[in-house]
Amino acid sequence: MPELWDLYNEKREPLGETHERGKPLPDGKFHIVANVLPVNLDGKILITKRSPEKNFGGIWETTGGEPPLVSRLYFCMDC
């Protein structure tokens, strides 16, 4: 069963349409993404490094597994 996304216009108004994940989005249609980043009392963000055997192996990701997003962010961490 494919994952379906609700589609929105550029004003974030629902279009009443769905789109299958993994296929290119049509021009002028968008989907909304939310990402939760856990932060500890020291202000450090919890992220993990993907296994080398997975797609995007070795890239830092959030706990939800979103490596393309995190690869564009830079964190100041003591690793």
Explain how this protein is built.
The chain is mostly beta strands and 79 residues long. It is built from one helix and four strands. The strands form two sheets. The chain has a two-stranded antiparallel ribbon with strand order 1-2. Strands 3-4 form a two-stranded antiparallel ribbon. It is flat. The relative contact order is 0.16.
Architecture blueprint of SSEs:
Blueprint: E1 4-8, E2 14-20, E3 48-49, E4 60-61, H1 67-70
Antiparallel strand pairs: 1-2, 3-4
Outline of this structure?
It is built from 1 helix and 4 strands; from the N terminus they run ββββα. By secondary structure, it is mainly beta.
Question: Can you give keywords for this protein?
Answer:
20% strand, single chain, 79 residues, 5% helix, two-stranded antiparallel ribbon, two-stranded antiparallel sheet, 1 helix, 4 strands, mainly beta, disordered C terminus
Helix content: under 10%
Roughly how many Å is the radius of gyration?
Answer: 16 Å
Parts with pLDDT < 50 across at least 5 consecutive residues: 69-79
The coarse overall form would be flat
Largest sheet: 2 strands, antiparallel
Q: Terminal Cα separation, in Å?
A: 39 Å
